[in-house]
Amino acid sequence: MAESGALRLWSGAVLDEWIDYNGHMSEGFYGVVFGMASDEYLTRMGFDEHYRATARGSFYTVETHIAFIDELAPGAALVVDTTVAGADPKRVHLFHELRRAGNDALAATQESLMLHVDTRIDRVAPMGEELYAVLRADAEAHTGRLAAGTTGRAIRAAGA
Fold first, then answer.
1. Which CATH number fits domain 7-141: 3.30.420.40, 3.40.50.620, 3.20.20.70, 3.10.129.10?
2. Per-residue confidence of the chain (160 residues) as pLDDT tens digits?
3. Among 69, 72, 96, 105, which is most buried by a count of CB atoms within 10 Å?
């Protein structure tokens, strides 16, 4: 667990193929890193091949918002701290903080909303009780961790 109380479940480094024409990590690969962090959180909940096969459930990401704070150079060591910002039987609301490993300098954040879907009927449905128990416990442990206004932000309109 990260010192902040968030879950530190993903770590890695900026790959050379993630570098853009400006010499730093391209914006799309921030999304890749955050997607891997979300997958690690789902695995922590108990979402695995067995669950997908027996419960016939999956998670679909329906909304994300990334804030880019600092550039990341090739080879930079990274960690992602994950906070459960909200939860109910059908939704997982995560807030990820992408940091430089070593000094924990913040490079980007992502807010993500995932829905649990019954894959037999392709409709939103409650997740299994065992998954929801982990999610609920993490949400309760993270209550109050995020400052007011951290989540739910919209993009500022140009010219406004």
1. 3.10.129.10
2. 455 689 999 999 999 999 999 999 999 999 999 999 999 999 999 999 999 999 999 999 999 999 999 999 999 999 999 999 999 999 999 999 999 999 999 999 999 999 999 999 999 999 999 999 999 999 999 999 999 889 998 888 888 6
3. 96
Report CA-CA distances (Å) from 8 to 56, 101, 121, 138, 142.
28, 11, 34, 13, 13
End-to-end CA distance of the chain: 40
Does the pTM surpass 0.85? The reply is: yes
